[in-house]
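Q: I'm writing up a methods section and want to include an example of the input and output format. Could you take the sequence below and give the corresponding predicted structure tokens, formatted cleanly so I can copy it straight into the document?
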Amino acid sequence: KSATSRLVFLYVLAVLVICGAIGFVAIFFTQSLIGGLIAAAITLVIIAIGSLIRMRQLGGSGSEVAILLGGIPVDPATKDPLERRLLNVVEEMAIASGIPVPRVFILRGEAGINAFAAGMRPGEAVIGVTRGTLEQLNRDELQGVVAHEFSHIFNGDMRLNLRLMGVLGGILALTTIGRIMLNTSRGTRSSKKDGNAFIFIGFALVAIGFIGVFFARLIKAAVSRQREYLADASAVQYTRNPLGIGGALMKINGMTEQSSVTSPFAEEASHMFFGSVKLFSNMMATHPALEERIKRISPQILQAGAWKPRYENPTGSTSTMTGSEASTGMNYMDDESLMSAVSPVPQARAPRSQTEAAAARASAIVDTVGMPGLDDLIAAKDMIAKIPEAVRDQLRTPIGATTG
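A: Here is the clean output for your methods example:
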């Protein structure tokens, strides 16, 4: 968090540098210090207004961001087995993290494996996933990706992400104004001297605006990388299965599309996604390298032959499910794989008296608050599976939930 605060300070400093650059350009033309200060102040106002406009467009709810990226809300009563599996995984992670169940969106036209969380507050949060995520990942991997996004909600990363989008929108306003000035100058009939000045100012705004965008992306990337590591670790904590999120990262690395997103607004929101939406250089990447992320959460995955991801297609396997598995979209791992995914829990020393035994039990309960174990996740799955499907469908609608 201290690193994030330092980087945000540098972001603000970059905005001030842009204002200073505009001021120097104005001094060059006006030969007046007052003129330079006025130009710098106007630039700051433009950036602020551009940021406020973008923040207002995004709003406090994450739904605006999801819709901006091309997301479509998932119908709680959907019969699509992949979408129902997603809804159940989201509900399970809400139980594990203690966060209200967010709305779920799908980017249907996206073949890459990616997801995002958006919203100013947990109660207004949404989670979005690409269609490729549903089709390419098995249940454990999907759970790891969703848990990663819940960590962003829990840690308040979404507020910072939206503010970064707002500031970036303000800086982009400079380049927009510069382009307008350049386009306008082509159709004007003013004197050659005035026209040249107009063109020069337009080029200056575009150039300085791109410099600001460049440094803004660098700082945005640094903020995002630090928080991605934290979200990966939290995903392992929520699921108690490092092979889930690790397997998802392995599949991203092995796909042609990887985690790419084709939405025209994807780059602006690149720091909000589970994986990099485009292939940037290491300096400009908003996410750490896949190998480094896997190494931090589950080093054994990278060991030769230690583990290889299963590339089964959930669409094909869903049709073979029966009973509660078909209705909930659940696909449990076998016992051997399930146990190997979790490190053995060390046994506590046997207490020597009833008082010590009671104290030990109380301490153990306190230690588990906010840290659900594997048994807790399995219990949550079983609890959801035992609820009749008709009741679950009613609970997902406002009228059904209130009327009972």
